[in-house]
Amino acid sequence: MGKAKIKRASTSIDMTAMCDVSFLLLSFFVMTSTAKQPEAFPVDTPASTTKDKLPDSNVGIITIGDKGKVFFGATDRDVRVKTLEKMSSRYGINFSQQDYDQFALMENVGTPMKAIKQVLAMEPSKRLEKGVQNGIPVDSTETLSNELYQWVQTARLAAAELNKEKEGNRDFVDPGPLKIAIKADATEKYPSINAVIETLRNQKQNKFSFITGLRAEDK
Amino acid sequence: MAELNQDSGKGGKGGKVRSKKNGGKVDLTAMVDLAFLLITFFMLTTSLNKPQAMDVAMPDKDKTEKKEEVLTADNRSVTVLLGSDNKVSWYYGQVKAPIEGPTVAGFGADGIRKVLIEKKAYVPRVSGGKDVIVIIRPSDKSTQKDLVDILDEMKIVDVKRYMIAKISPEEIDVLKRDNIYND
Questions:
Q1: CATH label of the domain that carries residue B116
Q2: Range of A116's domain?
Q3: What does pTM read for this prediction?
Q4: pLDDT in tens, B10-38
Q5: What does each C-alpha distance from B105 to A50, A129, B147, B180 come to in angstroms?
Q6: A-contacting residues in B 18-57 (Cβ below 8 Å)
Q7: Does any CB of chain A come closer than 8 Å to the CB of residue B71?
């Protein structure tokens, strides 16, 4: 009968607290993030010290990447549908209700108008494969050959019309005209960006934004 | 009286079938593993940060006038030419007779930023209190990164007047001479 009993230290840890913390972190991530959309080609935007966030509605985004390919998309789905309606009348192409529904779900489009119906008929995952969408034609004119010009103009008109329609609703705050943002890959050479900037200037859209990543000052 | 309470020693059904009783303690290690796995999944597949937007304002485009040049006083204008390889060439004054010759600089605190800060302080002294005007002329061999970097420098140095303009053939020659007009 030993008076001093050696207490065996318990080697099992109570994991309840750890589990609580991890679920807390998990809920944080689940609630504060949005799922990333797959892209046709990677666009690595350059970094800047600008802290102004890109608004997540009422924006038209022109994506430039992969050696000068230009894609265009609008953030709001009703703007997308109305833009396609206007493009349909400008280019004389008829779209079915299914085409409109598919287009409303597409984050951006990167084909010439003559090939757009085929792209809309494809499976969503097939659309983003390499070589399927090679970019919207851009040139220095204001005619139908500069399809980006037409896309941006119809999108701006569509957004303005939709805002006007909603004016009657209570609690409607007019977000203003459609903002245009350019998301260009950091390695894109200036001529492709200049073509887009001149297209915007031709329709008097002199104010636009570049989408950048964040960088701390004092580089 | 027979004890109906849970007895971790004996089985509940008699001698033949014994159901193992854990004693009420659940090991949560597996749960934590699962939770961290889910966290990693969400961290990697969703975008947490919204992209930033840097505002750019271009001057109005006059379609009838051929010459797009805005005349600025020589002693107020610093022109920055964006070349290849993330290098710029800057000069103070006019390209044909610059007050301070075309010099190559890089980006960063000890590159073009130092020049801009110096000019920003210098110009008001020689021009009677007026601010420096920076004219940015990107060449065809510069990249989007160079353009965003120089616009960023405008913001960091707090240059109030700047514009993006078209590069001229003489300025392209300057870049070629300094070997920053490569593919």
A1: 3.30.420
A2: 47-214
A3: 0.80
A4: 544 555 655 666 577 788 888 889 989 98
A5: 23, 41, 15, 11
A6: 27-29, 31-32, 35-36, 38-39, 42-43, 45-57
A7: no
